[in-house]
Write a structure and sequence with these properties.
The protein has a domain at about 5-100: 434 Repressor (Amino-terminal Domain) (Orthogonal Bundle). Helices cover about 55% and strands about 0% of the residues. The chain contains 12 helices and 2 strands, in the order ααααααααααββαα. It has a two-stranded antiparallel sheet with strand order 1-2.
Length: about 270
C-alpha cells in the first residue's frame, strides 16, 4: 500500500498511486484518470509524472478525489506540489521545511538532519576544525576559534548535530574526531539544502573582504564575453580543478600540515541576457 507521507516527490507519488490502483482494478488507466480529472488527453498524466507538465491547484483536489486521499493526505500532497513547482529558492525552502515539519511526515530522519547540516555555514567549519583541534567539550573556546566567531550555544548545537548524524564521534580519550573524511550529498532534497549552503557561503565571502588582509585571502573576479561552448569548457576545467584541490587537501592531511579551515567558492554566472 502506498504511504503518501513517505514521499518528497509528488510525481513519483502519483505514479506509485496509479500502479497500486491498477494492480487492484485493471480498468484503472491513464484514460480513466483523464476522464475523471478533466484532461483532454491521457498523455497529459504521462507528462505530469515525467516532469514535463505541472498541475494547477484545482487538479490537486481532483487527483485527491481520484485516488481517494484523506484530508491530511491532501494537505501533504498540496505541500509536495508547491515544493516541486516553486519558482524561487525561498519558496522552495519554505515548502520543504513545511514538509519536514508536517506531523505525519515520514521523511527519513537523516534527510532532515543533513538538511539542517547545510543550513548554517559554521556546521561544516566546526566539522573540519575538529579534525585539527583537540576538542573535548569547551564550547566557548570552540566558538571563538570559528571566524567570524559564533555563540557557544551555536557551537554546542553544531557538535550535537554532527554527532547525531555520525559526522563526528568521541574517541576513548574523550576527544572528538571526524567519523568520515569527506562528505557527499545523496539524499533527494539536496538541491534545497545545497542552495541554502551556497547562499550562506556567498554572504560569508563578502564579509571576508573586510575581515582579512589581502595576504590572508584570495578573492578576485573576471568579466568577459563567452559562447555556450566556451562556458561548457570552463565548467569542465573547473571540475578538473576541484579534483586537483581535493588531492592537495588529501596530501596536506596525510602530512598533518593543516592548521586552519578554509572555504573555497567557485562562481561563474551570466550578468547579461543572450
Amino acid at each position: 500500500m502506498v504511504e503518501p507521507f513517505e514521499y518528497l516527490n509528488y510525481r513519483k507519488l502519483l505514479k506509485d498511486l496509479y500502479e497500486d490502483r491498477k494492480a487492484q482494478q485493471p480498468f484503472f488507466s491513464y484514460r480513466y484518470i483523464a476522464q475523471k480529472v478533466g484532461f483532454t488527453s491521457a498523455g497529459f498524466f504521462t507528462n505530469i509524472i515525467q516532469g514535463k507538465r505541472n498541475i494547477s491547484p484545482e487538479y490537486i483536489f481532483k487527483f485527491a478525489e481520484v485516488f481517494k486521499l484523506k484530508k491530511s493526505e491532501i494537505e501533504y500532497f498540496e505541500l509536495l506540489v508547491n515544493f516541486d513547482q516553486a519558482k524561487d529558492h525561498s519558496r522552495k525552502r519554505f515548502y520543504f521545511e513545511k514538509i519536514l515539519g508536517h506531523k505525519k511526515s515520514k521523511i527519513k530522519v537523516t534527510d532532515a538532519q543533513q538538511y539542517e547540516f547545510y543550513s548554517a555555514w559554521y556546521y561544516t567549519a566546526i566539522r573540519e576544525l575538529i579534525d585539527i583541534y583537540p576538542f573535548k567539550g569547551d564550547f566557548e573556546e570552540l566558538a571563538k576559534r570559528v571566524s567570524p566567531p559564533i555563540k557557544p550555544a551555536e557551537a554546542k548545537k553544531a557538535v550535537e548535530l554532527l554527532e547525531k548524524i555520525g559526522f563526528i564521534r568521541k574517541n576513548a580519550d574523550g576527544v572528538y574526531e571526524q567519523a568520515d573524511t569527506f562528505i557527499t550529498t545523496g539524499y533527494e532534497a539536496k538541491s534545497v539544502a545545497i542552495t541554502n549552503f551556497l547562499m550562506g557561503m556567498a554572504d560569508l565571502a563578502k564579509g571576508a573582504i573586510d575581515r582579512y588582509p589581502r595576504d590572508k585571502r584570495d578573492i578576485s573576479s573576471l568579466t568577459f564575453t563567452l559562447s555556450e561552448e566556451g562556458f561548457a569548457t570552463i565548467q569542465d576545467r573547473l571540475k578538473s580543478f576541484r579534483h586537483e584541490v581535493l588531492e592537495i587537501v588529501r596530501e596536506d592531511k596525510n602530512q598533518k600540515k593543516q592548521d586552519r579551515v578554509y572555504h573555497f567558492n567557485f562562481h561563474l554566472f551570466p550578468i547579461t541576457r543572450v
